[in-house]
Amino acid sequence: MSPYHSAFPISVKGLSVSYDRKRVLTNIFLELKAGTICGVVGPNGAGKSTLFKAILDLIDINTGNIKIHGQDIDEVRARIAYVPQKDDVDWTFPATVQDIVLMGRYPHKKIFQSLNKDDYRMAEQAMKDLAIEDLKDRQIGQLSGGQQQRVFIARALAQEADIFLLDEPFVGVDMLTEEKIIALLQRLRSEGKTTLVVHHDLSTVHEYFDHVILLNQRLVAYGATNTTFTEENVSRTYGAQLNILHKTAWN
Predict the structure, then answer these.
(1) How far is the CA of 174 from the CAs of 87, 88, 197, 213, in angstroms?
(2) CATH number at residue 78
(3) What pLDDT is stored for residue 8 in this prediction?
(4) Residue 187 lies in a domain
(5) The domain containing residue 177 runs over which residues?
(6) Is 82 within 8 Å of 196 (Cβ atoms)?
(7) What is the pTM of this model?
(8) pLDDT (tens digit, 9 = 90+) per residue, 163-221?
(9) pLDDT over 80 (residue 47)
(10) Could you give the number of structural domains in the chain?
(11) Residue 208, domain member (yes or no)
């Protein structure tokens, strides 16, 4: 067990965030349970990606306090891995699959410290876990959408983190990749690790996630999926959009 392990690996208290004076998140209180796969669900513009970036201290916040394993993120940054949206990645960057996966080892290194055999071994194992070891010398822009997503998940895996934040990992991937990702998340859960996943397909929420956050600039609900992902809570989250989504989620 990690020395940083706690019952609530992520604690968010009173978080509010604005962009250009427009409030994006308002007064969010969350304590994420350890060893769960938690879906983050809400309409476009609900602040889902903003929540991730606030947790990672990648953006300025207006008010609030965020702790990772009870500490400021700079104290435990190596313990939290992030898979960004594909649109946030420069796919023309001259890096191979192996280069990207090895980046997961850098949080454990001091400045100017070189990678060693153990780092390469961990990267190799992560690539095998995602079935991309045969692609290790390919430039990342030459890959399919599913392969690209596997590369960045392999990078997160190589980091040996306790917490994983995945922002829309299933967008533009094939069913095989989606199944591999879910199987990996379930394995991480069995190891006591915690995963947050921004997700749009309401029809798979019950199948994929044991906990769910329903978000629309404010926290609508958070808890076990079987008691929290209800038609009433989804209606409160999506409002007028619910008619479009209704058949997908409950039929």
Answers:
(1) 17, 20, 17, 25
(2) 3.40.50.300
(3) 86
(4) yes
(5) 10-220+235-250
(6) no
(7) 0.89
(8) 999 999 998 888 888 998 999 999 999 999 999 999 999 999 999 999 999 999 999 99
(9) yes
(10) 1
(11) yes
